[in-house]
Amino acid sequence: MKKHLIPLLCIYATLFCFSAAHAQKYNFERKIPQEIVPSAGSRIALSSTYYKEGDTSLEWRYAPHSSLTIGREVSMNEQQEQKYGITLWIYNEVSQSDSLVFQFLDAKGEVQYHFSYQLQATGWRACWIGFHYMKGKKQDRELKQCRIIAPSRKGRIFMDRLILPQEKMNDRTTPDEQIPYNNSLANRDLWHWCRVWQWEQYRYALPLKEKLPAEDINNLLTIERRLTDYCRQSLNKSHVQKAFALYEKCNIKRSGKGYTGAPIVAPDELDRKKNEITWQDVEIMLSGFAYAYIFHQNKEAKMNYFKVFDYAIDQGFAYGSGMGTNHHYGYQTRQIYLSAWLMRNDIYQYANKEAILDMLRFWSALQETRLPCQKGRDELLDSWHTLLMPKLISALLFQDEKEKDRALLSLSVWLSTSLVYTPGTIGGIKVDGTTFHHGGFYPAYTTGALGMIGNFIRLTLDTSYGLEQSSREVFKHALQSMRNYTNLHEWSSSLGGRHPFGGGMKEDDIEAFGALALAGDLLGKGEGIDRELAADYLRLQLEDTPLKRKFQSQGILPAAAPKGFFVYNYGSAGVYRQKNWMVTLKGYTTDVWGAEIYTKDNRYGRYQSYGSVLIQGDGNPVSRQGSGFSEDGWDWNRLPGTTTIHLPFDLLDSPLKGTTMAHSKENFSGSTSFNKGACGLFAMKLMERGLKNFTADFVARKSVSCFGNRLICLGSGIHNSNRNHPTETTLFQCAIGDSSYIPAYQEGDSVLCDPFHTYYYIRKGNIRYTEGIQHSFHNKTRQPTSGRFVTAWLDHGIAPCNASYEYLVLIKPTPKEQAEALHTYRILQHDNKAHIIYDVPSGTVACAFFDEFTGNEDFLIKYADAETLVMYRQEQGTVRISVCSPDLNIAEKTFTTSAPSRPKVKRIVLPGSWDVEQGSSHSISVRAVEAGTEVSVTCRDGQPQEFILIRRK
User: Fold this and answer.
1) Separation between Cα atoms, residue 358 and residue 340, nearest integer Å
2) Closest residue by Cα to residue 644 from 706, 715, 708, 590
3) Nearest CA to 735 among 787, 779, 686, 801?
4) Does the predicted model carry a pTM greater than 0.70?
5) For the segment 75-92, what is each residue's pLDDT rounded down to a tens digit?
6) Which of 469, 585, 650, 880 has the fewest C-beta atoms under 10 angstroms from its C-beta?
7) Among 458, 460, 409, 456, which residue's Cα sits nearest to residue 212?
8) Rounded distance, CA 146 to CA 148, Å?
9) Per residue in 300-346, pLDDT tens?
10) What are the backbone angles phi and psi of residue 358, rounded to the nearest 5°?
11) Half-sphere exposure of 913 (CA within 13 A, CB side)
């Protein structure tokens, strides 16, 4: 060990040589900065015994209550106080019930800010805290020095990676055992990763059983056997070679009471150039060594496994540690838990087993499950996806059977109570079956999350640790909604979030259908399995699996593809399905963001929700690629169905370097269904936000009525002042690669056909069409791409004023359907107030009322409230009618909120006297008015209300 002791007199001579107020990083590599001064009786030195950066740190040998002064000026205004702070790492060799006290003094020597740093833990721990969260008078923000007060007993600590002031504290700084009160943001449900220490204060709601019944013991053994099989199948074989190479690079060695080696830090402060590593590297080593030992009996791998575990704990990846910030760690640690379960017998015999087991339980967030899931808890999909299996493993790692039983029962209760319909835009499952993450409907986070719940159900099947029936019913709704908005396994690009050409059901998601089917009948038929879910499983599972054969042996046949119109207004969306094709309709509102754009993701995805109409029905199996959606050469301005301003890609690129998740200022966007979902209607008030390179006065009103294999698409009020670039409504954009393709024009200049036998009959609009190589840019890398496409659109010109369009989409028609296409509907109204069409074959009227509506004598509806979707069909003395307000009507407009959808009453007036059919919902009422009968419908959660009106005799 090398040390460079600094004479105290030399240091005192520099006590008042303060530095400027800008951020200063101290690495403690070559010399000790002159502004760092110990008090009498203590001393400082550079030391290589431990380090968190480079190969040395600052060692402080302190006397009781001595001090270490950092003569660093910090000058803040009120705004900077919210951002500034201090960050460093501290190595403590001896656990003690005492603390370091950090004080920040003004020019008079008075303490303005202070905080305590607890010393219970040994090893490296982060010390990150913003001035806003410190204690103290906080009357003077002109600070002259930082003083650290030592504990009441002599000792030593080591410091490294010191930054003072840290001018931009990490928003997700994590409270932990060292500074429990740090960062009030951690108490927000959004930052669930950062709440692990808060949850550690929970106490079990369930008591320990005095004696475990034999049945419970057998159930636990059954789950453990299943878990072992699961972990053996899931442990990553590819990590073996990587583990040995990484281990050698890390150069882990015993030193002092701990270790030295490649520093382990959170990804937010990771510097690979300095040979630093993070959780994922630890995961690779632990899983790789576990695989080599378990499957190949490699004894060196076993030794390395425990050395890496000890090293990681010493580095701060340990119980009670937040590592500065721990956000999203779950995505980088899952394999650690699989390895621990398979290595459990060796862990139980290891000298440092308690530290390992404590670390595993703490970082799995098992402590949260000591109580039922907190109402309003956000970001559940992350937790289900990344930490549910670690929680299950950690619960079963208790050696005491009664502790194991309580932990697993509590986990089951927590999971059951998390599988409820969540309010507002917080994460979880909504009443329409959509699943939310990042404050929006997000299938890319749904996949995997539902799969992990399915794994839990499968592992606990037929035991006392399974889920409650009510939670299984909610889970079934989410699974079948995913079945509805995917074809076969993939969702459309408009639902892709920041991954517009990626994502789909994974194997675990498909297996979840089977697992839930085995968990019991949810159809009320009293059968041992849910045959509906089993049929879905047979349709989705393309491989030959034991479960597939089991269902087939019971006479269950694969389900047909979903059919009908599905309303998903929590996503401002509608999904329409017939035969083997799917249409996804997408808008956005004040409560629903239009696109998720990150620094390196979906840079050109602004138009994903500008009224897109995406048809997905080709490929073997059906897929985005097979249906003509290919990123290479994709024109991001021309998502089918959207009305957009066609911009150069440098202007379409998001104007914000970071995240853009723009909401509309309009609330009217979404869908409704009719006749028990046989048909449906989508409509939206499109408006663009006033961001850089956006056109703030760009507006349009759009609707799509869906009947049979026909989509009637209307647009009106298309207006903007952009005189540099044209406004368009895209009909289709299809990648055709090297395949041969017949010309798009079929009948004169008003009918086009895309490569997938879908016809477009343009009744109003200037058609443009191109075929050939398109040049574009990749949504993540911005690198040039190209591909062969056929594309058609309606050109509204430069700075259109009140432009409109009308076209019919006929999907995979027969010759007879082609001949009759234009006779299947009539336009009753097409302006800025309303889009109303009459579907001839079904006798159904679809109405999108954008503004308050007053009908003439030709309309059944004499009055309708603005922003209402209505569909109806007149029958003998009755009217079947559907009324919907797609507006979620959520009061709080923030990134994510638990504020619920509020009721909204919609009124329509019909001539004559009408009653509501007996047995209809209490949300529907009628009363006589001068013009006839006023029907009031209370709408909530964007759900349609369908009912029958009976004419009074």
Assistant:
1) 12
2) 715
3) 787
4) yes
5) 999 999 999 999 999 999
6) 650
7) 409
8) 7
9) 999 999 999 999 999 999 999 999 999 999 999 999 999 999 999 99
10) -65, -40
11) 3
